Amino acid sequence: MTKPRPTTKRRSAIEVALPAAASASRPAASADTPLVLGVSTRALFDLEEEHGVFVGEGENAYSALQRQREEKAPRPGCAFEFVKRLLALNPPGGPTLVEIVILSRNSPDLALRAFRSCERHGLAIAEGSFTSGRPIAPFLAAWGVDLFLSKDEEDVGDAVKAGTAAAILGPVPPEIRPEDSDVHFALDGDLVTFGGESEAIFRQQGLEAFERHERRSARMPLTRGPFGGALLLKLVELRRRCPRSDGTSRVRITMVTARAAPAHERVVRTLRNWDTLFDEVHFIGPRAKVPFLAAAGVQIYFDDRNEHVEAASQAVPAGRVLELPSSQRREDAKAR
């Protein structure tokens, strides 16, 4: 959503203060279960050359190349640094806070390179499913996956239909310069954290109608989007379980949204209603998102617009979130 910049809008990050009471519509989340991330091999490692062989020469040539390179660990892929930081949250000898599983359509024969590559890169990943071309989605529930990251749009679409938060990762940024060991998630607003009802008004009727609607609905909580339900609650719980001695957390959650005043009020009140903490919210109007993502130091960003993902990928790992199926959107609306 791109909107003209209001002249009176304050553009700094805000800390959203939240009440202790939980919303009645809040999805259930367990404080004892780890965050489970499912990741494809091509999302975890840079396998674009091998994938090009698969597309251009077929499965046999692809498998032969993978076997030839069995002892050679590929370069890090788009999700690599994010995964590495998530795994570092697990305290030695302590409770498991994060689990990573590889979900691949490769044959089990090619699992050898995947796990050897994890070992050589220092990634404590020892589990996964290799389906020899079968869809991944039926196995997401078996693994208890909270978030699935892949380079394959069909697999991501199937995951979304199965009710799992998922995103199609963009290219590897030209340079990733870790400055700390935090895990910093950044989410878009409408169609990612929130549902798409307000976005539909903006697209169909324009900015003035959108702002009138948001003023009238300021005290009515937005519906939950693909990443605003169980996944968001898992992230908030992970944040709580990773404290520092100074009261901050090793996990941060940020929103970067094209909303601006007066449409900001509904966002703040919705987050209060959800009893869901965001460390930062940037209401940036029509400004480019990349400078804010870079300034915030995020490790991964999720947006519903492909052009925003492509732009963000010049600075940070980014993934495109697909819209929920219409039937699922209707169920979410009923649960408000």
How is this structure best summarized?
By secondary structure, this protein is α/β, with parallel strands linked by helices.
Approximate helicity band: 25-40%
The CATH topology name of the largest domain reads: Rossmann fold
In round numbers, the mean pLDDT is 86
Strand content: 5-15%
- In CATH, the homologous superfamily of the largest domain goes by the name HAD superfamily/HAD-like
Residue runs with pLDDT of under 50 for 5 or more positions = 2-26, 329-336
* Overall SS class: alpha/beta
Task: Give the name of the CATH architecture of the largest domain.
Answer: 3-Layer(aba) Sandwich
Rg calculated over all Cα atoms? 20 Å
Strand order of the largest sheet: 3-2-1-4-5-10-9-6-7-8
Question: Would you give an account of this structure?
Answer:
The relative contact order is 0.18. The two termini are 23 Å apart. This protein folds into 2 domains: 35-169, Rossmann fold (3-Layer(aba) Sandwich), CATH 3.40.50; 183-334, 3-Layer(aba) Sandwich (Rossmann fold), CATH 3.40.50. α8 (197-205) packs antiparallel against α9 (207-216). It has 14 helices and 10 strands. It is globular. The chain has helices at residues 41-44, 48-57, 59-68, 80-88, 111-120, 140-143, 153-161, 197-205, 207-216, 230-240, 264-274, 290-296, 306-312, 326-334, and strands at 35-39, 98-104, 128-130, 147-150, 165-169, 183-187, 251-257, 280-283, 300-303, 318-321. Helix content is 36%, strand content 14%. The protein has a 10-stranded mixed sheet. It is an alpha/beta fold and 336 residues long. α5 links the parallel β2 (98-104) and β3.
